[in-house]
Amino acid sequence: MFIHLGWLHILGNMLFLWIFGDNIEDAMGHALYAIFYLIVGIAAAVAHGLTDVDSLTAAVGASGAVAGVMGAYIVLFPRALVVAIIPPLFFLPLPIPAFIMIGFWFLFQLIGGFASLGPEVAGTGGGIAYFAHIGGFVAGALLVNVFAMNRARATRHTKAIRRRESMW
Questions:
Q1: Burial per residue of 122-132, b for 16 or more beta-carbon CB atoms within 10 angstroms, e otherwise
Q2: % of the chain at pLDDT higher than 90
Q3: What pTM does this model have?
Q4: What distance, in Å, lies between the first and last C-alpha atoms of the chain?
Q5: How far apart are CA 124 and CA 12, in angstroms?
Q6: Domain range spanning residue 86?
Q7: What is the pLDDT of residues 59-94, one digit of tens each?
Q8: Tell me, what's the pLDDT at 59?
């Protein structure tokens, strides 16, 4: 979870962690959030290991743990607006409900994951551990209510964010 393949790899993971992680940390508190992050990261690694038992390639990166944070986010804040830039369609910031953005992301992970289960074809998969993403996401969605002790504080924080976003 703490090793990456390059700057782009770590920056992509940290961007998603920055967008979704702060609200989850508010809901859990610092210590529980750290434990949650490690547990969903381990769940992601187990999911990847169970679906790719013959692989000789090391799985690196925080993507599975970050996916767990995204799973928690969609449970706690499904209607929160996420400001996104979608390059092929829109180059301006576009507020999108979290359940739509994360839902599409998860759908792409499922498609990529199940496509990777077929026969090995040169150039497919791109070295992406789709089932680590899926496993982390599912673990995060299932475990968030066990860890989210400060949910009322996080809800107030999200309402304040929504008020600021509705102004523009």
A1: eeeeeebbbbb
A2: 53
A3: 0.82
A4: 37
A5: 21
A6: 7-167
A7: 788 899 999 999 999 999 999 998 887 777 667 788
A8: 79
71 is a domain residue:
yes
Amino acid at 136: G
CATH (domain of 60): 1.20.1540
136/9 Cα distance (integer angstroms): 17
Separation between Cα atoms, residue 135 and residue 141, nearest integer Å: 10
